[in-house]
Amino acid sequence: MEDEALADIADRLYAAPLDGFVAARAAAVKEAAGQDKDLAAAVRGLPKPSVAAWALNMLARHRPDVPAQLGELGARMRAAQDALDAAALRELGRERRAMLADAVETARSVAREQGRSISDAMASDVEETLRALTADGGAANAVASGRLLKVLSADGVNDVDLDGAVALPGLLPAVPPGRPGGSPPAARRTTAQKAAADGTRTTTAPGSQPAPARPRLEAVRQTPRASSPPALERAKAVLAEALEAADDAGRLAGELREEEQQVRAEIAELQQETAELRNRLKAAEESLDRSRKRLSATAAGAKQAARAADKAARTAMLAQERVLRLGSS
Questions:
Q1: What's the mean per-residue pLDDT of the chain?
Q2: Which sequence spans correspond to the domains of the chain?
Q3: Rg for the chain (alpha carbons), in Å?
Q4: DSSP labels, 180-212
Q5: Are 159 and 138 in contact (CB under 8 A)?
């Protein structure tokens, strides 16, 4: 079984409408079974994505620029975090909120174009996953693959949990080790790394003997520690994150209050409409009752009138016969 063949089949499945996924997978398994049993088994094991994950897959496939721009923003945010640049973090936080809102609307639009609408709850899951994309390079690769299976979440400290989150995880690009997102903090760079970055290297004078290896403990003691960033800068970075979280919470609370007011207004309108309909129903029932009574009375009168008409017709017939008899005598 070749990874390329499996990836091609997976891409076709995860690019198709969600409602037809199971049937399309069964057809793909049947087609692959005639060529490679291992490939057929692997295709059979491709899970169906959640609705929110499917919407993100549609976004990645039809508007790849959107997750790419969010990934680039995430890299800038991680760089600002490493530099403890509180002002940049605040500005980038505002930029991320605006980009996330636009990205969610784009995802909803793309999903509608592909034949399915997503609810507000699913849209929240989409936003949470896109937020995780900005925090972690692995999450960005998972979303960009277009084979996402479930929503992602980031806590800003640990790597995003991608276990079972994407189909064919072994085919995702590798993310360099380090902090979430793959960029190691500047404070963790070793002296050798700094020397390499500066373009310098250690040399040994001609004819001299290399210095004997020092005990590990002595080397650790004599190696100068990297200077820690000032406490004020660390506090500013923490404050920037707290302000961003507060802004997000305030925005969410405002949106929920607005939605609450809208729902209350809808309920009031529906209650008024219900009352009006009940009044109309009551009036209609009363009118129906009167009409039934009129119908009953009219029907009885019609029957009585019909009997009287029959009697009058018979009387007229008898009178006519009598006239005829008298006229002929």
A1: 81
A2: 1-48, 50-185
A3: 40
A4: TTS---GGG--HHHHHHHHT------TTPPPPP
A5: yes
